[in-house]
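To: structure subgroup
Subject: Chain for Friday's discussion

All,

I'm putting the inputs and outputs inline so they're searchable in the archive.
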Amino acid sequence: MANKRPTRGQGGAKGIEREPQGEGYERIDQYDTALVKRISGHYGDILKAIGEDPEREGLLKTPERVAKALQYLTHGYDIDPAKILKSALFKEDYSQMVLVKDIEIYSMCEHHMLPFFGKAHVAYVPNGRITGLSKIPRVVDAFARRLQVQERLTNEIRDCIHDTLKPHGVAVVMECDHLCMRMRGVQKQNSVTTTSAFTGIFLKDQRTREEFIKLISARLH
């Protein structure tokens, strides 16, 4: 079963900010105004703690900007990934592998709150039901837009698809760069972390697993 993760409170007041950008373009941001106020209040103190002046021109709006950015970067807590899959379920007599590869990932390491990013390759073998192809990347995003570790993120994607679609098997491989390894600590610039998670036929049938690995390694387009 997929890990149960806490979700943040919903139903707060939603503010809409309209900011003219020139050339007829208007940026519209939507956010929880109470949450922005709560988070930004803490960031003023953080700026002082690291030796900065939160009153100088370049930092005046930084706490608010950070608060809004954090809401966006963690909005996955407000999404039910299983509902995404269930919103487009279809009966289909197809029993070969369905693969969506090179799905872009942007997430935040929960240990240092620094980004990690890369690609996910997700496949499943249907058992009488398929889901809309766009739903797979949406599920990846829903789990990625939370504080994460790559290992758990890989498992959560696998478990959600397995538990919701009940397929013959699921395969997930993820390749990511971690800024907590590049910018601090060990400071290794070219290291890439690869994780994998399999269920069903991908575990039991070596040929199916090898086909998956071959497909995600190939450049077919």
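Points worth raising on Friday:
The chain is about 35% helix and 30% strand.
The beta strands are 14-22, 25-32, 89-91, 98-109, 115-125, 129-131, 147-148, 169-178, 193-198.

D.
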